[in-house]
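From the shared-data thread, chain only:
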Amino acid sequence: MYRYRPYLSLAGILILGTVLRFAQLEAKPVWLDEILTGLFSLGHSYENIPLDAVFPLAQFADIFTLNSTASCQKIAEMVATESTHPPLFFCLTHEWLSTVQGSWVWQARSLCALFGVGAIAAMYGLNRIAFSRQAGVMGAAVMAVSPFAVYLSQEARHYTLPMLLVILSLMGLIQIQKDLHHRGKIRPWVGISWVIFNTLGLYTHYFFLLAWVAELLTILALSLGKYLHPVSLGLQQQSSPAPAKEMVTWLNLGGYSLLPLLLYLPWLPTLHNHFSRPETDWFKPFEPSWVDSITPIFQTLAGWLVMVVAFPVENQPLWIVIPSAILMLLWSGYFLLSITPRIKALFTSPNTRLSGLTLLFFTGFVLLEYLTIVYGVGKDITSAVRYHFIYYPGICALLGASLMMNPVGREETNPSAPVLSNPLAKSRFPILARAGGLSPDSPTLKDAASYLIPGFLIVGLISSVFVVSNWVFQKSYDPAGVAQQLNLEPTVPLVVVVGYENMQEVALGLSFALELDKIRPGNLPETGWAFMTRSPSYQSVWENLGSVSGLPPSAVNLWIVAPGLRQREYPPQLGLGDRLCNLDPNHYYRLGIPYQLYRCAGAENEPA
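Structure, as tokens:
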């Protein structure tokens, strides 16, 4: 029974991770990117969205029904021409939507949550191969309660799938490094598995290119280190293979490294076209200034912080924001001071140095790629915290392994002590010691921070509850909040007009429409919705409003949702069909995007 404890602990961790990822899965409002996921995965394109005319609000909900005749090839074609993403995730989601019952929102999010649970199990496998069984259990626990990982798992987007594939690819990378170091050759099943995971990742998310290149650079860097500084890095090979055998090994490695690129060749022209699409322009600062040169650094640090702790500091009253910010900073400072000697021990011990350096180099190279894109290409991919997902597995694995290390110094005073022991063995939490497969009387340091690991897990669990409750990782666009304000007077007929310049803005308007449809059922007065092009300017929108017909005889509330329009640029009067609508200065709002209320008199009140 004793030897099964780690697996029982892993089962408990998986159950906890599953509960956190599926809790209130459908409660959060659907946001812009999830609209695009639903549209393509359901087998529809932008052509299915009615534009430049007023339609009943309920008609837009009909767009999000499954097109069972759509094939993966058809979805790939739509994604290639109407999006900036590779197709694999959308094809898998389409098959999932065809199989699982429920609303499309729950269906799409549940698949991503399952990938998130799979990432927990894969993290155990990664640290089990790289370090030890105890480090595997702790790595899985770190990911299970990470607020960042829970947040990604509740998004109907392609983040948890590539994150899972990165972990599986890192397992192959670690095994390749161990094969080269101990065997002098790469076993075929290891190389082939690595190729498969990398190829799938490339067809899932473009950021996986960064992970793939970082892994190749890691292999190159460690190989050069073994030849140039083997002693200082502690990477001396146990025996030198024959030159002919070594040449074959390197040829095999070269083949395994380049094969994903060859398999990706059919999609490379599409990748080239996507890089020049205007949909990626949001990465560029709207009004560049000197602040933009340092902002990515702070955004990256904030991204690291929320990987372990996330308390409510967004859109909250000061009495919540100030204590939350102070607690986050105090905890992160304590954790950093406590984990640093354990990280140092990870790279000092000969048993963990190779795997630790592999993960460190991988993470470092991805960060260098991020900085190159930010400062070299001029696109700030650190501006959205979710985009740190591609190197998060490296950080998670290192944290899990480091938490199970004794601080530097134990080996010097007691060389016979195990390298990877359990710092909780004599703490007040012996159950956590057993979770690592160690008995409560296992060796430990007298000064071990007995509260570090339980504190880390408890803080992560609390943070994850905040994520599930939508208190943290809030979107800059708030569809639920916008819908509440659009429904300001539920008994008055309503027309909402969204100006659009591209399909991203149409998707944003659809997220508002779906939320409004929830709170404004069919028994309320008429509700019309329109997307009207604002190209070349908003003057075209104002002119199109005059052609609207079929309005009810009573007064009508007209809302103008106008991306890019300043408050002073809203006209004081607008014509809606045969009505004259006056701007209401008391009802201008901006929740990530501006929208203004106009009050249109009833037909019987119009002047003759």
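The beta strands are 54-56, 494-500, 527-533, 556-561, 573-576, 579-590, 594-600.
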